[in-house]
Amino acid sequence: MRILLVEDEKKLAMSIKQGLTESGLAVDIAPDGEEGLYSAQSESYDVIILDLGLPKIDGLTLCQKLRKEKNFIPILMLTAKTRTEDKVVGLDSGADDYLTKPFEFMELRSRINALLRRKFQVVAPILKIADLELDPAKRTATRGGTNIVLTPKEFAVLEYLLRNSDQTVTRSQIIDHVWDYDSETLSNVVDVFIATLRKKIDNGGKTKLIKTVHGVGYKISG
User: Fold this and answer.
1) Which of 8, 38, 88, 220 could link 161 by a cystine bridge, Cβ 3.0 to 4.6 Å?
2) The domain boundary residue, chosen from 85, 119, 153
3) Together in a domain, 64 and 43
4) Quick one: pLDDT band at residue 68, thresholds 50, 70, 90?
5) Residue 43's domain is classified under what CATH number?
6) How far apart are alpha carbons 1 and 152 in whole angstroms?
7) 86, pLDDT greater than 70
């Protein structure tokens, strides 16, 4: 999944990015509201983490602009303000959730997971196809009841395939949702990850779940 973090505190932004990247998420950072608005308008994101106090365009205004443009990417707003009235203003501007600084990283990750579940309308948090199960909250994967050990990036690629099960996704789409725009990722890197996932997911399985759609990309289906 790909996250846009709009935060002008560089140290905090890098800390959040490091934690989320280690969890298998791709994170792009915008240091001010103007760049954040441009990124949200021009790129595809699954969640936006938006600081309230930003230079150039503040968080409330940015959020309102996106909602007026019918951009309904889930937004988690960050702020140092603790008054209930401030939280209400943030939510009324179109934000989906609100987190007060300072916060624990696990709480941030939990809020992001909740927004992702809401976005993909997943009633049960476990993604399934055939006898393969993926639990995004616990970061676990099993096939036929056997645990599969995955790296964070392998988990992210598999999660993206499962959230688009029975649909063909291109290499570019996988890169856009799993890697941030600071990485110099080539399409053949996706092929390497798919090959590794096949060894872990499909070897020994009665049904080969990960399929190649020649000239287009990949899909996972039962």
Assistant:
1) 220
2) 119
3) yes
4) very high
5) 3.40.50.2300
6) 11
7) no
- Does residue 88 sit in the same domain as residue 192? no
**Tens digits of residue pLDDT in 126-159:** 899 999 999 987 889 999 999 999 998 899 999 9
User: With the C-alpha atoms ordered 54, 59, 61, 63, is the resulting torsion angle positive or negative?
Assistant: positive
Residues 6+ apart with CB under 8 A from 45: 2, 3, 4, 28, 39, 73
The parent domain of residue 106 ranges over 2-119
Residues with Cβ within 8 Å of 68's Cβ and at least 6 positions away in sequence, in order, are none
Joined tokens for residue 72:
């309904």
With a CB cutoff of 8 Å and minimum separation 6, the contacts of 60 are 52, 89, 90, 93
Same domain, 138 and 42: no
Q: 86 and 145 in one domain? A: no
